């Protein structure tokens, strides 16, 4: 994407973001008449802009290739009444230039304006002596000045509003969300700090549907992410930074929360915050906190104690496993299973897990009927889960 800045005339200072393709700047003298005739059509168009001209009238056609290369930006002039435009010529990027008496500059949207653009002052036009009486000139000025100023203000305000409104992040998010509202899955659309729209899908099928919708529209700079895959990617990135993540909460991507097992110092926390913002540009409100394994273990044991379940801790696959030391009847087993699922949703399964050990019901024999491989024997009359409860 490129940007165009008007440097002279009534619209001096206005900027427009230009999408790949042809963009037309229509230069006119009579703003009020042009706005009344074509204002409705132009307000709905995204590639035509009405610009007040103090000199010649005509059209400037800016052509921006799909390659995204700055060298692909060309410009051509077409005078009013001419059937064809003049040949396209390359644009001097980030430098003031003049077409039809209008001074403008074009640059990549991410590039800062050059000092020659920011400090540009339009040349003073030559003044031709007028032999008419002074009072006649003043009367003429009084006739056209108020109406012209009002018309210019209205048109400028309209195009500034339309141009900036269409490019507001919230507007882009709303449009893309509307395009996905009839999709089979649930999505979250977030505008990133890098001018990218991030679409979070719950599974691969929903992500594939969203990718096709974005490609069909061909108007958004969007990236589709699977929420769980993105969570795993961020956790892997944290590990590469020498950190020990407990969980990355992405239920609301714009308010992502990172929980670490070791609470970093204030300088380290600021550094992590800065790096993480660059790694997760969609996280506008990034929160980083910490909780130790000992605190998690104490919390689990206290909460299971309220269910009447005493526990023990073991190391299993490099993480702390908490399991019961008492017999679980059907009701207590269901409560422990529900708590295990709830705990994993809140705190993940990287550092601490909740498992259940089962014993045979002596009165009814081995009454625990589960699918093969789900239970394993750990001794005579004693059984426990081979995997975490889900």
Tags for this entry?
single chain, 390 residues, alpha+beta, Tumour Suppressor Smad4, GMP Synthetase, Chain A, domain 3, Alpha-Beta Plaits, five-stranded mixed β-sheet, four-stranded antiparallel β-sheet, 9 helices
How would you describe this structure to a colleague?
It is a single chain. This protein is an alpha+beta fold and 390 residues long. It folds into three domains: 2-119, Sandwich (Tumour Suppressor Smad4), CATH 2.60.200; 166-289, GMP Synthetase, Chain A, domain 3 (2-Layer Sandwich); 293-355, Alpha-Beta Plaits, CATH 3.30.70. The chain is 35% helix and 26% strand. It has nine helices and 21 strands. It has helices spanning 31-44, 115-118, 134-167, 169-179, 204-217, 227-240, 266-279, 293-305, 330-347; strands spanning 2-6, 15-18, 21-28, 48-52, 58-64, 73-79, 89-90, 97-99, 102-108, 187-191, 197-201, 222-226, 245-249, 257-260, 287-290, 311-316, 319-324, 352-354, 357-359, 375-379, 382-385. The strands form six sheets. A five-stranded mixed sheet has the order 4-3-5-6-7. A four-stranded antiparallel sheet has the order 2-1-9-8. A three-stranded mixed sheet has the order 10-11-12. Helix 1 (31-44) links the parallel strand 3 and strand 4. Helix 1 packs parallel to helix 3. It is elongated and about 95 Å long.
Write a compact overview of the structure shown:
Keywords: Membrane, Plasmid, Transmembrane, Transmembrane helix. It comes from Stenotrophomonas maltophilia. The protein has 390 residues and is an alpha+beta fold.
